[in-house]
Design a protein that fits this description.
360 residues; alpha/beta; Nucleotidyltransferase, domain 5; 3 domains; five-stranded mixed β-sheet; two-stranded antiparallel sheet; 13 helices; 13% strand; globular
């Protein structure tokens, strides 16, 4: 950056921050170990010759320091750790070396900054991720119930039709001679019921969040696609619809929906998908892609979701149905496993969703 007087590399942890600053005018390299609090770091940054530019890696410490520094007029970026080039032969790793590496890479323009979300956007993203964690907890809680019953020879007779109203009534009718076993079953079922109630409350809250003015226009567009309703649309918008960070050609790769590749000399080997990026977004896309196995059609629910949306978005949604249906059946016609066909459809679906969300 032209005019920068001080370049800064920060290795940020919960209780400490290792800072390295290079003064371009004097050539002085300053090192300082600071407390973990953002205010202490910002006060030190203010004491440096301005204008200053610095960075630290994205991680569990979040964006608090970057927001505080920017409020003080200091350009601090948060960079993607996966894009940081590290010497392959380096066997000594310290906080000071990490900060110095960030400083060198920042000065040479070899780092990729991530977008810092607003506090309201970050709060909505936390809520969406809480819902995903709750889904996983519910799955484990249900497994505990069925495994307990299985250990005692109680097997539901309708395979693949579990946790319906009939299945829930069947579980409630199970009796055990041992009082302790009956108590365990009651506690496990109560845990499932509690999680279901929490999920319902959270879904209601997320539905209200999705209707916020800054979120609803994009959510409404994404809901025009088959297999994408309000909660999925909201999660995808918060996780991947970021014009500054992503480009359509790179989005499927970031999501880990592209095949892995190993090439050496004359040998080329393709493997399973890379599974990088957001696991949550990847799961939602694959689940949505399953809906495109059926012939293209617009049902009552989808028609209701599409009402009032731009014609260009509806055209994209229709093209997605046609293309992804062909993708499913072309690959399955070649003998590919249904899961492989679905992942291929999900890889194409994300391009359609991006086009609809960013349509001017």
């Amino acid at each position: 950056m032209n005019g920068t007087m001080t370049w800064i590399g920060l290795d940020v942890h919960a209780r400490s921050t290792q800072a390295v600053a290079f003064d371009t005018l004097s050539g002085e390299l300053r090192r300082r170990k600071l407390p973990g609090e953002a205010d202490a770091v910002v006060n030190w940054l203010r004491s440096l010759p301005q204008p200053a530019r610095g960075c630290y890696e994205a991680g569990p410490t979040g964006f608090v320091l970057a927001r505080a520094a920017r409020s003080a007029g200091i350009a601090i970026e948060v960079v993607a750790p996966s894009k940081i080039a590290r010497p392959s032969g380096e066997r000594i790793k310290t906080d000071r070396r990490d900060a110095e590496l960030l400083l060198r890479l920042l000065m040479t323009g070899q780092l990729r900054a991530v977008r810092i979300p607003s506090e309201s956007e970050e709060a909505a993203r936390e809520l969406v991720r809480l819902r995903e964690q709750l889904r996983q907890d519910l799955l484990r809680a249900r497994h505990r119930v069925t495994k307990l019953l299985l250990r005692h020879g109680r097997v539901w007779g309708r395979a693949g039709n579990t946790w319906t109203r009939d299945h829930r009534a069947w579980i409630g009718a199970q009796q055990f001679d041992e009082a302790d076993t009956a108590l365990v079953l009651a506690e496990l079922v109560a845990n499932v019921d509690g999680l279901l109630a929490r999920r319902a409350n959270l879904d209601e809250r997320l539905a209200r969040v999705a209707q916020r003015p800054e979120l609803w226009p994009t959510v409404a567009r994404l809901r025009c696609f088959r297999g994408v309703d309000t909660l999925t649309a909201l999660a995808l918008q918060l996780e991947i619809i970021d014009r500054q960070r992503f480009r359509p050609a790179k989005l499927a790769s970031w999501l880990g929906l592209v095949p892995s590749l190993e090439q050496s000399g004359e040998t080329t080997s393709r493997g399973p998908i890379t599974k990088t990026g957001s696991q949550h977004a990847r799961r939602l896309l694959v689940e949505a892609a399953w809906h495109y196995q059926r012939p293209p059609r617009i049902g009552v629910a989808l028609h209701r979701r599409q009402e009032g949306q731009p014609a260009e978005v509806l055209a994209l949604a229709n093209r997605a149905q046609q293309r992804l249906y062909r993708t499913h059946h072309r690959l399955r016609g070649r003998g590919r496993h249904p899961n492989i066909a679905t992942v291929a459809a999900a890889r194409e679906l994300v391009g359609f969703l991006w086009a609809a969300a960013t349509l001017e």
